[in-house]
Specification:
single chain; 222 residues; alpha/beta; Rossmann fold; 6-stranded parallel beta sheet; 8 strands; 45% helix; hydrolase; HAD-like_SerB; hydrolase activity; metal-binding; HAD-like_sf
Length: 222
């Protein structure tokens, strides 16, 4: 069996679901427009530059919705899926996932974006397994704004994939080939750990690395 891992934002989606969800909070009036947008844009720029303060970002990003009733937050997420995400789900990205599924490969989305935002996105792509940033919850099950465990970000993606496979009674060595699709240099640690790294819709930095190392370059949204 082969293993196919997919980053989400910029890879299967042309945009960034985390940043877009923040913009959606502004649209709903759940966050102060210009001040929120400026901070959201600043965090996104830090992510792209590889210097994101992840705990600070998670506290900020969840603050607009985590104190609201669960039903209200879930309804907002459904609107976000319908109005923002589904229009970004291109046939080429869906076909890439289906290609691996039809070949009988074990597939997972591996993303640094939190589980609340990404669970319905992975489901919409038809991917059963999601490795996303886990949100800490209090004794009543409410999101606190902290991170639970190892975040699936940069080197943390390696640990989270390893732990996920262990939960299935497997290791990476059990697979004849491991594919990983990503657009970002933030994912270099995991790209360097797999047999088949694919720079997918890469930024200029990752494209240069892929060209130097002979990695395939896939442009789904060109």
């Amino acid at each position: 069996m082969e293993l196919a891992l997919f980053d989400l934002d910029g890879t299967l989606l042309p945009g960034d679901s985390d940043h877009a969800f923040g913009e959606f909070m502004v649209r709903l009036g759940w966050a102060d427009g210009e001040a929120w947008r400026a901070r959201n844009d600043g965090f996104f720029a830090d992510y792209q530059a590889g210097r994101l303060d992840l705990p600070a970002y998670i506290d900020f990003a969840t603050s607009a919705w985590r104190a609201r009733p669960e039903a209200e937050a879930l309804a907002a997420r459904e609107r976000f899926m319908a109005e923002v995400i589904r229009p970004q789900m291109h046939p080429q990205a869906l076909a890439l996932v289906r290609k691996h599924q039809d070949a009988g490969h074990l597939c997972a989305v591996v993303t640094a974006t939190n589980e609340f935002v990404t669970a319905p996105i992975a489901q919409a792509f038809g991917v059963e397994h999601l490795i996303a940033l886990r949100l800490a919850r209090d004794a009543q099950g409410r999101v606190t704004g902290a991170i639970d465990g190892v975040p699936s970000y940069r080197e943390g993606k390696i640990a989270r994939v390893r732990d996920w496979l262990a939960g299935l009674g497997r290791t990476q060595a059990d697979f004849s080939r491991v594919h990983f699709y990503s657009d970002s240099t933030n994912d270099l640690p995991l790209l360097e750990q797999v047999d088949s790294p694919v720079a997918t819709n890469p930024g200029s930095a990752l494209e240069a690395i892929a060209l130097a190392r002979g990695w395939p370059i896939l442009k789904l949204f060109a």
